[in-house]
């Protein structure tokens, strides 16, 4: 991207501390979600955690999807240390195994950095992938983006670089950056303009096509996996009949709760 994108402000980053409160707020919402959210058809859904997170961070999300009738799976690799070729190869194997086990294409849900793995798999193995949904994933980056120009919280960026000292040697990181291109399968990018970890401009497709969309929701970055509106949207998107994908239908009620499909060109910079 040619335009300068500001890193999340200190205020936005500090607001990430509200994530525990968002977990608590989910509790009274669950009975309504179980009744109102779309029901699944049993197809497999593989869920990727974010940077420095494990499958524990996606447990609530996967439990909800399973109760709604989907077959949600953890990535079973442990902590997500960042983009690494060795991890990507293991995910290729896991994707193919789930496809063979179910005899169905697999939907991929990636939280934060996990979404880059999901989009890469969708590009390279689209015959196994039904659709991709990213949650606050900074996929709109290319390899030639300098670290100082990446609009990600400074402490997070420094931690990433320390944990990946051989970053410039990794084949995945230095290969073709397919994650910043719209996948050849239906794709939904869910993001928040109040994200305190990565700028929302990194988390959207700037030229969404016939089978891709951006949906803005209120909430924090770290709370995306237990945000009631995210769970509702996941069920709605995943429940669509294979081959009959349609963009999210935004009603007056959704808009009242700040769930929107914005005109990207018309959006102001995040505050």
Outline the secondary-structure elements.
Blueprint: H1 10-14, H2 19-36, E1 44-48, H3 59-67, E2 71-73, H4 85-102, E3 106-111, H5 114-124, E4 129-135, H6 154-163, H7 171-174, E5 187-191, E6 212-216, H8 228-238, H9 252-256
Parallel strand pairs: 1-2, 1-3, 3-4, 4-5, 5-6
Q: Any idea what the CATH superfamily is called?
A: Alpha/Beta hydrolase fold, catalytic domain
Number of domains: 1
N- to C-terminal distance: 19 Å
Task: Give me the Rg, rounded.
Answer: 17 Å
Could you name the CATH topology? Rossmann fold
List its salient traits.
271 residues; alpha/beta; Rossmann fold; six-stranded parallel beta sheet; 9 helices; globular
Written account of the structure:
It contains 9 helices and 6 strands, in the order ααβαβαβαβααββαα. The longest helix has 18 residues, at 19-36. By secondary structure, it is of the alpha/beta class. The protein starts with 9 loop residues before the first helix and ends in a 15-residue tail after the last helix. It is globular, with a radius of gyration of 17 Å. Helices cover 34% and strands 11% of the residues. Residues 144-151 and 263-271 have low confidence and may be disordered.
